[in-house]
Amino acid sequence: MMVTRFAPSPTGALHLGHALSAIRAHDLARASDGHFLLRIEDIDGVRSRPEHVAGLIDDLTWLGLRWDGPVTYQSQRLPLYAEALDRLRALDVLYPCFCTRADIAREIAASMAAPHAGPNGLVYPGTCRRLGHGERERRREVEQHAWRINIARAVDIAGSLRWTDANLGEICANPAAHGDVVLARKDAPASYHLAVTIDDAAQGVTDVVRGRDLIGATDIHRLLQALLALPTPLYHHHGLIVGMDGQRLAKRQNAPTLAALREGAEDGAALACRLRAGALPIGFRIENV
User: Fold this and answer.
1) Residue 254: is its pLDDT beyond 70?
2) Do 39 and 199 form a contact (C-beta atoms < 8 A)?
3) For all residues of the chain together, what is the average pLDDT?
């Protein structure tokens, strides 16, 4: 049976781009007589807000979407992430990282090597990977730290990897291009990469619908699936909703929110039908993947 999901973070109001992903995931499941799940990714204790959870549930209901089973909250699934981290430590592919963002920026600026650029911006230069075991253990006792994956070691263990996108076909994964990404943050028990991979597997998600801005992240998720012996879903990356200037919608850029449209007496079901047809409000369009 097909299982899809919509997994927003309650760090702000939903906008049209979120609505597009939710509708496509919902409709894909319904067309196959499958299940559509709602998961709230609320492990960011600093930015997640209960009022945003209530708001996004109201928004989805207003759009006419219905999910199967109870809403799942990542904050209630922390033991799963801890277990996964323990398994990765047993593979010797994790190391503690004590660097601040300022430390990383200074190291990159001082480097005489080629620019540390990856698919999603600057790549961590590996500062703490080079620490000796004794220093790591001493600093762990007194300093806050994140946990990073030694990407080169992990790729050596996992070998060549592929994943499939329903629109793009088979893709050769290149997790090494992302560098040693964080899997557990200093202020959160798991990063997006780890939590989403574990949750999709635990919930039996067969098809992942999300924006094309996460295509690169799928390489990391595929690596974690291989290391932890988890199934690989079929991915459906869709084009993003952008303004006429080509800038994608974002919470931090004051994108039109579903809450504002709802409070303005917009018909949510009618809006969902227009999004299905690709009929966007004036000034917006859907990019090609």
Assistant:
1) no
2) yes
3) 91
Q: pLDDT for 191-228, tens place per residue?
A: 999 999 999 999 999 999 999 999 999 999 999 999 99
Strands 169-172 and 121-122: unpaired
| Chain segment 42-98, per-residue pLDDT in tens | 998 677 888 889 999 999 999 999 999 999 999 999 999 999 999 999 999 999 999
Strands in 166-206 per DSSP E: 169-172, 182-184
Which tokens go with 241?
């909703």
